[in-house]
Amino acid sequence: MRYIIVALVALCIPLTGCISLQSDMPMIYDKPVIKSFSAVPASINASETSALQWSVVGATNVSIDQGVGNVALTGQTSVSPSVTTVYTLTAANSFGSTSARTQITVPGTQDGGFTDFPKRPVINYFVASPLVIIPGSSATLSWKITDATDIKLDPDLGQIRPEMSLQIKPVQATTYTLTATNQVGSDSVSVTITLVPVTSTGPQSGNTAVLYLASSESGSLVKNAAAYSKSPAVCAGDNAQNLASRAFLSYDITSIPPSAIIQGAELDFGAYALSGNPTYSSAMWGNMGALEVYRSQYGKYEDPGRIAYEFPAPPLGSLHLTGDISSRLKLDVTVDGDGVNVIQQLMADGQSRCQFRVQFFTSTNWDGKADLICLDEATLIVKYSVP
């Protein structure tokens, strides 16, 4: 079972391939899309070769069985099976995997192929918005399912369709599990909606607001020449192609009273996850340098591109990674490099979001491996008083 919750602690996602902003793009919560997978030619003699060709978007890992192994998002490779053989391509990311098959027929050999392509049911996405609510408020569950003959939602909320949105008003923290089934198998995804008490807005001091990532507005961008590709994984570092990834974090600040006086703000990276060696020092290839945080109001997640990735932004500070994930990473982000009280100014300007860009000082350490820190659990802790 896969879980997409407000505190996502998954294995880091090597950004070996992301979703191009200029190409067909699945939804932000989608599994990978296999645009094509074929063998050319599809029939050969035992001594001949055929080329497997494929194109995938939205995956962090792509592999082909029968000994081919891990491959790039798009490409081809030559194979020479001695018997009729089925090849299965599997594309995966943090939200699941997608598979496709193709067959190379070798006439006169035992049929190891297939005559049909039975498909497993797929939950393309299942999301809750928002993931954190106050008692008495509503949230919306949305999903899209393909190739299912039976769909169940637990807790049961009545008749459901393969694609729909449903408004709910839970009275306590609730995990919703969507399961799609057919004769081949099943797929299941869970989301959790958390309730937090209402913060008093009366005259007082010492208030603290713990703000969680707006997951639908957060993610990362990878630059490749003039193209900017995005991923829902909130990861900074570089990928296996030595391309730099920058993370974008968004927080909803509307729960803070408009009259609040901001006394402090801290960005807590929580139970971050490391992939590869995105540390401050590395004996073989050099290092990624300091992890830098900038104030960057980039807007909606579908908007970022060159401007969000490259535009100069006021710095908020930096951290040195040691590789010890037991150490807590926190950074005071009350005031930016221009001397501005960040959240106070955003509230004065009528802004509803506080957003950050996180990147390493060095774009890549050139080791041909994904070196990432993933920050899906990062929280913004705001201390304030109300006159």
Task: Give an overview of the whole structure.
- The strands form six sheets. Strands 2, 18, 19, 20, 21, 23, 24, 25, 27 and 28 form a ten-stranded antiparallel β-sheet that branches.
- This protein folds into three domains: 33-104, Sandwich (Immunoglobulin-like); 122-195, Immunoglobulin-like (Sandwich); 202-386.
- With 387 residues, the protein is mainly beta.
- It has two helices and 29 strands.
- It has helices at residues 306-310, 342-348, and strands spanning 2-4, 19-20, 33-40, 50-57, 61-64, 69-71, 74-79, 85-93, 96-104, 122-129, 132-133, 139-146, 150-154, 163-168, 174-181, 186-195, 204-212, 219-224, 227-231, 235-238, 244-252, 261-268, 273-275, 291-295, 315-319, 330-332, 353-360, 371-374, 379-386.
Q: In short, what is this structure?
A:
The chain has 387 residues and is mainly β. The protein has 2 helices and 29 strands. The strands form 6 sheets. Strands 2, 18, 19, 20, 21, 23, 24, 25, 27 and 28 form a 10-stranded antiparallel sheet that branches. Strands 1, 11, 13, 15 and 16 form a 5-stranded mixed sheet that branches. A 4-stranded antiparallel sheet has the order 6-5-8-9, with no helix packed on it.
